[in-house]
Structures are given as structure tokens and as C-alpha cells.
Amino acid sequence: MKITKFIISHLMLTCVGLLQVCAQVGRDSELFHTLKKQDSIFFARGFNQCDLTYLEAHIADDLKFYHDQSGFQDKTSFFENTRKYICSNPDIKPIRKVDASSLEVFPLYNNGTLYGAIQKGKHDFYIREKGKTDIKTSSALFTHVWLVEGEDWILGEALSFDHQDPEKGKASVSTIEKMLLETKVPALGLGIIEDGQLTKVKVFGTLDKTKKAPYNTIFKVASLTKPLTALTVLKLVDHGLLDLQEPLYKYWIDPDLKKDKRYKELTPYLVLTHQTGFPNWRYMTDSNKLHFQFDPGEKYQYSGEGFEYLRKAIEKKLGKTLEDLARDFIFEPVGMNDTRFWWDGSMNESRYAKNFDENGNQIETVKYYEANAAANLLTTVEDYGRFVAYVINGAGLDEQLFKDMQKHQVKLKENDFFGYGWEILTGFNDDEFAMLHTGKDPGVSTLAIMFPKSKNGYVVFLNGDNVNQIYEYLLTQKLYLGQELWDKR
């Protein structure tokens, strides 16, 4: 980006017409220290501490703010966006830090009188949460035009540009943004878990091809609902409220199955390992009725119906909804404050990543108003990243039960198994193995994976269908053991 013609013309008048020296001032000069202090106070109070009264008093009425991702903003829109996206949630707060070593200052004179200064440098952005290490989200270059107003300085113009992913070796924002445009997938959410800790959270692109996707974008994650339901079930087992081998017919019998006594064989174990004998969904069959396609326990067959069957049985037995159980055993302990099973009253639709088909056409948003144990979970990268990190670190389960969750309960094919709610892939380098789950709906493609030996993992959320190019790029070039995972597809 270039500074405005107004500023350029003033520089020319000052430096050429008046023969005033306009070079960068020394780092030991009074002006340099004054502007360094001004930058520190302005962003500490106005951005980090959200002192909006101070902020409004220290930006010019005709402020011009240029951002390479979220466009141009005047004073009104800049102030409103700061209030809405920077200062709306003090518990999860964006933080700006300047790289003091990068600062440069150039004075602005008019007839020999200092009326302002241009300040250039690099700044970094983080997400701060109480009791946790700040998570770096991006770095960028900036150019600020500070204007003298009485004995104070106010921000007249600002440019924030060349935003980059913070981690060396990770994809740059520009690379991913370009790929999103090429594939007609508006948004990508990426969370990185390293050594058992969620260390990186980044959301690229837009919610709807227009509005920039915020850090806390809400994604529909389809079948990534199942691992969360599975862990809720294991929590009930761990607390003695359920047994993996107890018959479910004591609490629930689907009306479609009443004439088929095989319903007596159904157990939580068979559901979590996808051995119920059910189709994925009854509506996808010719009869449109729930039925057994083979005897329970005979073999593996992926089934959302099984998870819904289990939900209904548990709710009947315990007299509590899945939402209540998940909140008590997972959401609250893990800190998943922005996750829900359906479009409840707390759902902030303005942060929802709308869904698009392979041609880039928006798919109508279907809002669900009751929980489904197998699909439709609404969550953020940070929330689900925390969940994956929680599971990597034992999920608060009894040690033996946690081992059983990772055990090869059912063999799918060579080096491919299923445990309790997670697919298990073996055969990676260094005897590493992976636990993973994917999610797929129209306009939804998601992945959650963890490597228990190294305690590394990641989550990938996409709100479009044309995703193969994006997955190939991320896995083969950027993510832990991603090339090996891509080769196993």
C-alpha cells in the first residue's frame, strides 16, 4: 500500500519546497521516544485494555484506516469494529504488541513547524485468555500518521498490511487466502496442538465471501459431533452411570424395530464402534425406516443412526438431555464456551461461516433446534482445539478406560482400525499412530486428528465443498505427519 496523495504532497512541499530535512530521526531523538511512547499508550489503552473513551479522543474525526484484509474504515466503522470484535469479550481478548526494534519515525513539517510524524514498524497480534499463555495469531507491518493536536498526538491515518501466519514454515496468509479464492471455499479455520497444548488458532477468509471471518468464527462441523458424544458416553461410564455392555432396549426401542428382536443386542459398545448393523441414516434407504442391514456386532458400518439411538436411550435412562450431560462433563471442564448442539438463544449468527457448494454458490442455512448426537455441532476452532488437546491428555478418564478408547476395537483394513468414537491409523514413522475423525455435509468439510505419542494434532474447518486442493496443500506441506496422512487417504 501507499500513503495518501495528501501526505505525499505535504512531504514534497516540506522536503523539496522548503528544503527542510525530512529523513528518519535517530532512535535516541526526543521525537522518536515521544512517538514510541505514544504508540505504547495508545494501543495499551485503546486496543489491549479497551478504554474506548481514550480511543475515541485520540483518533482524528476524519480518520482513514486501511487494512489489507478487512478493507477501508473511517472513524465510525473503525470505532464500531473495535468495540464489536476487539472489546466484546474480555475473557478471550485480542492483544497487540509492537516490535520496538522495528520502529522508524519520519517528521512532518509545515513552514518549519512540526505538525505530525509518520511511524512505521511491525506489530504482532495474540489472543489472551485468563490463566493461559497468549496465542499468537498473526504479524503485520504498519504505517501510522500521527498529528499534533495541542500538546497531544492523535492518529490521523493508519495502514496495517502484509499480514502473515506467525509460525515459520506455516502457510502465509496470502498463500491460503489465494487458495480459498481459487477453490471458492470462503473460510478456513486451523488449530494446532503441540505437546498437548493448543498453541495456534487462525481463521482465514470470509464468512460469506464478503465479511471477514473473525478469530471466533462459528463453524458447523458435521460428524465431528460424534467424538464429543462418544467422550460424553465414556464419562458416564467412568462415573458409573452407564455400562458399555448394558442393553439399550431397557430404555429405548425405536418404533421401526419393534418386530425385530435383534434390538435386544444393541449396547453402547456397539454404537461407539459402529457395529449396530444400522445404515448411516434411515432417510438414505429405500424404506425410509430404521432397520438392521446385518446382525449387530457382525462387522463395522458407519452409522449416525446408532449415535442417535444411543442418545435417546441415555436420555431416557438418566432423565437428562445430551446437551446437559455434555455441558457438565465436557464443555465446562474444557472451557468450550462457544459450542452448542443446535441454534439456541446464545447462537451469534453474525459469526457463522455460511456454507458453499463446489461451484461457490451459497447453500441455504438450515437451522436445527434440537440436539443430534451424530451431526450439526456448532463450534469454533479454539473450542474444538481445546477438546482435542483435552483428549490427548487423557480426557480426565480412568487410565484403563482411556487405553480402551485407543484400543483397536474393530479392524477396518490394514493399519486402519476403530476405537471408541475415533478412527485409528497406524504405520506412521517412529511408531506414531493417529486418532482422527472427519465431518462432511453439503458445504462442510472438517478434520480433527491427534497423535497420542507426540501429543501433536490439529483441527481443520472449511465451509465449502471444493476442498481437496486445500487439504493437499496443508497436509503435504504444513502439518505434522501430514504427508504420511495424505498418502494413506
TrEMBL record:
Keywords: Signal
Annotated Beta-lactamase-related domain residues: 177-470
Keyword Signal in annotation: yes
Residues of the signal peptide: 1-23
UniProt cross-references to Gene3D superfamilies, sorted A to Z: 3.10.450.50, DD-peptidase/beta-lactamase superfamily (3.40.710.10)
InterPro entries for this protein: Beta-lactam-related (IPR001466), Beta-lactam/transpept-like (IPR012338), Diverse_Enzym_Activities (IPR050789)
Tree of life domain: Bacteria
Protein name: Beta-lactamase
Organism: Allomuricauda ruestringensis (strain DSM 13258 / CIP 107369 / LMG 19739 / B1) (Muricauda ruestringensis)
